[in-house]
Amino acid sequence: MTLSAPVVQTGLDRLLAEPERLNALKGQRLGLLVNPTSITASLDHAIEALREAGLNIVRLFGPEHGVRAEAQDMEVVEETVDPLSGLPCISLYGHTFESLKPRQEHLEGLDRVICDIQDIGARYYTYVYTIGLMMQACGEASIPVTVLDRPNPINGVDIEGNIVLEGYDSFVGMQPIATRHAMTAGELAHYFNRFTDWRCELEVVELRGWKRAMWFDQTGLPWVMPSPNMPTLDTATVYPGQCLIEGTNLSEARGTTRPFELVGAPYVDAPVLKAYLESLKLEGVAYRLVAFRPMFQKHAGQTCRGLQLHITDRRRLRSLTLSYAIIAGVIAQGSSDFKWREQAYEFVKDRLAIDLLLGDPAQRKALEDGVDPRELAMANRTARAEFESRRTECLLYHD
Predict the structure, then answer these.
(1) Which domain holds residue 140?
(2) Closest Cα partner for 122 from 320, 387, 311, 352?
(3) Nearest 10 degrees: Cα torsion 76, 346, 177, 61
(4) 183 and 326 share a domain?
(5) Which of 193, 290, 368, 373 has the fewest CB within 10 Å, making it most exposed?
């Protein structure tokens, strides 16, 4: 099968197409931070493509889920050798929080680290923090970092949500950025390098042809699942809000074929929830009553009653407002079965998962107190003013 030429050229494809860039890297001992999304427009993986171009890849680094992304969320990755390339591999998602940052011995013998991973555009998605921690470790070791940029799949314009407050940072929010940040990984790398202590000698190979208003399906690039429960662009579109469901005992439908688009639990009165959501007249979404049975994780093997979220206008959809409303609607049903997640979450045991995801416990308390979810979502704009100002200084694409 011949793939049509994409509208957008990724940082990886630019690197491979520009002899001057390639020649500057030849002879260097390179580390590569990658996962399955690290592909060319013709579906060749960066590992093979860069080696065939004459570069010396000596070590791989794998983020959460692993280099080949076979591991589920929050599942320890212990790979030491990549089975396809035979290259040694360092897992950056182990048993402890400390495992998230490369140790200095992991970087020994390297002249440069290249990072190429597709982000999703939401603060909770951990890959950009893995890039940031790699930048910090490389800065301490005086090793340059090259980030090969990729599009923000849910566009680079629309911003949603608050910022993480001090004391509520975690691997789902390590820096004070908005929930939906509307930046590319390359732009965030510049943000980290300028406004945090994740500093290094940084180069970003920029996208060519990307416009900020683009969604991923307008780029012409092939979609590869960034993680096991991110199968489609629709999943990514609802994810900035629906990831909050992880902070509850509602099922976000991991263990089904429609994670994050389905939501429910055995105790949910789905018709009442649907009627409540429809009364709010949220734009860009319609609701369908469903029953689903997750194969693993929350309520595994049990029938969950709930809703499927059908996107009717992604430009108008505000996923965070929608998910505030879903949680508020379930709380309003008054079931004693509804609970906030209390188990350890992303290496944190002393704070609720929902507080880490929201980045501000006042948001949770407002939901518990019955504040209108539309007002709650709108109330965050002042708190993120500093982020938006800093973000503007780090944008690479202007159209």
Answers:
(1) 11-222+390-394
(2) 320
(3) -10
(4) no
(5) 368
- DSSP, collapsed to helix, strand or coil, labels residue 247 as helix
* Residue 117 belongs to a domain: yes
Instruction: Give the integer Cα–Cα distance in Å for 50 and 263.
Output: 41
280 Cα distance to chain centroid: 28
Tens-binned pLDDT, residue by residue, of the chain (399 aa): 456 789 999 999 999 999 999 999 999 999 999 999 999 999 999 999 999 999 999 999 999 988 986 767 767 778 788 888 999 999 999 889 999 999 999 999 999 999 999 999 999 999 999 999 999 999 999 999 999 999 999 999 999 999 999 899 999 999 999 999 999 999 999 999 999 999 999 999 999 999 999 999 999 999 999 999 999 999 999 999 999 999 999 999 999 999 999 999 999 999 999 999 999 999 999 999 999 999 999 999 999 999 999 999 999 999 999 999 999 999 999 999 999 999 999 999 999 999 999 999 999 999 999 999 999 888 766 778 999 999 999 999 998
Q: Is residue 399 part of a domain?
A: no
- Cβ count within 10 A of residue 2: 5
- Tell me, yes or no, whether 383 lies in a domain: no
Question: Is the same domain home to 198 and 243?
Answer: no
| pTM flag (> 0.85) | yes
Q: How many CB atoms lie within 10 A of CB 232?
A: 16
Residues 18 and 51 in one domain: yes
Query: Tokens 């060519």 — which residue?
Result: 208
In a domain, 290, yes or no: yes
Q: Is 19 helix (H, G, I), strand (E, B) or coil?
A: helix
338 CB-near residues (< 8 Å, 6+ apart): 248, 249, 250, 265, 267, 330, 331
Q: Could you identify the residue written with the tokens 């908005």?
A: 178
d(CA 229, CA 202): 31
